[in-house]
Each structure stands twice: as C-alpha cells, then as structure tokens.
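sanity check this chain:
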Amino acid sequence: MKLRFAKMQGQGNDFVVFDGVRQPVALTSEQVRAIADRHFGIGCDQVLVVEKAAASANDFRYRIFNADGGEVEQCGNGARCFARFVVEEGLTAKRAIRVETAAGIIVPEIEASGQVTVDMGPPRFAPREVPFTAEETLIVYPLVVAGATVEVSVVSMGNPHAVQVVESVERAPVATQGPLIERHPAFPQRVNAGYMQPLSRGHIKLRVWERGAGETLACGTGACAAVVAGIRRGLLDAEVRVTTRGGDLTIRWPRPDRPVMMTGDAVRVFDGEIEL
C-alpha cells in the first residue's frame, strides 16, 4: 500500500499528515510506529489523518496518533498544521474550519500573516474530566513522584496535563521525572507533564514531556494548559507569549467562561510517498 503524505511542523513539533479524504488511510499501531521512527521511517512526533466529517455542519474529522502508535484526543500544534494542509491541498477554500476531534469541535483559522489561530475550547478542571483521581477540584495538587512531593496544576485541554512551576526549565527534570508523571497511577489515561518558568506576567518558558511521544520541541495543548494554570495561580495575564525550544506561541484566555485561543506557525516541510 502506497500513501502520499506531507511532513509539517509547528514550532518544531513535527507531523506526518495523510489525506484520508481522497485516499483510503487505515493505519495499524505498528504502521504508525514505523512511520514515526526517525531512523527507519519518515520521523515525527505525531501522525495526523484528515477524514470526512461525520456531521454536515462540520468540515473535516481530525485523527491524531502519537509516535507510540496510540490514538489521542487533541494536539494543538497539529491542529494548525491540519488547517494549512487542507487549504493547501484544495480540500477547502475556507479560512476558518470546523474540525471534529475525539475531544470535540475545534475551529482553526488561517490569519492574513500565514499564522494559524485555533479556538481550543474551554479548559476543564474537574478531576473526572481530566481524568485524575482526586476528590475535589483544586488549583494546585500535591503529587508524590519517586518519593518526593511536587505541586501540579491539573487541567484538560481535550487531553490531560499536569503543569509544574519551576525556577529554570533548563534544569527541570523533564527527561527523568516526566515519564514517571506520565504514567503516574493518579492519571488513569496517562498525562502530559509540563514544566513552566514564568519570566514575567506576559511571558513564560515551557518544556513538555508528551504522553506517548516523549519530550517534543513544542506542545500546543501544553502551552494552553500552562497559561491557564498560571492565570489561575495569579502569576500571568490574559495574553502570554510561550517560548518553547522550537519557537514561540501566543496564548490568550480572556476570562474563565471563554475558550483558550492559540496562535502560531504551521509550516510544510516536504511531500512524499511511503510504501506500507
């Protein structure tokens, strides 16, 4: 089976994107892992599949597979690349696109600048909606990791996040502690582990250990979760520049009853065809 694809990236978070509208795409977990392999495959953090929408009110369905082969609910940087892909492929002429995901509807919009803004929907904090095993909804929770207690803010942006505030993201134990938090028993569906360093009320640095992918150069939903956590803790204003290792994102959360808005790049790197 031969499949055409595009390699895309948003702030260094990279994706292999398949058009499942004009060609049949049915990937096994093993095939996703082979595609994502950076030595023997194409190499990516996630595989994205564009499909026809289930409901006529929507434009497309968007499926996301992590490098470990598992399908997940949401990916913010991927959503921006998804939007650029469907427009560049001529699948739609719309600038604002209604997209079905496993976490609900998102609406990416291509700006005149070429950047893409995504309505990521409202954050969710109730432990059962994350999911997270806690009895009540708090702003900060103690979490015992390898015998030490860390403080995390827990939030769902369509996928689960546990965000810590650290003095330095460069010295943060992302590669060692991140995997332990990802698979902590308090998170029955695993979790993305974020490490946020506030530089001012409008600027943070961020690193994220992503569930099923390891540390990536950027994480869109992780940036949203970190800003939301920082606002709830009284550390940040409503609009924040998030500096990741792959570049900057702008996150806006004007008030608790409004959705989180994310703006950043979406770049097509190359096209190709792979035999599976």
Notes: Helices lie at 29-36, 76-88, 174-182, 220-232. The chain has four helices and 18 strands. The CA atoms of residues 201 and 236 lie 4 Å apart. The mean pLDDT is 96.
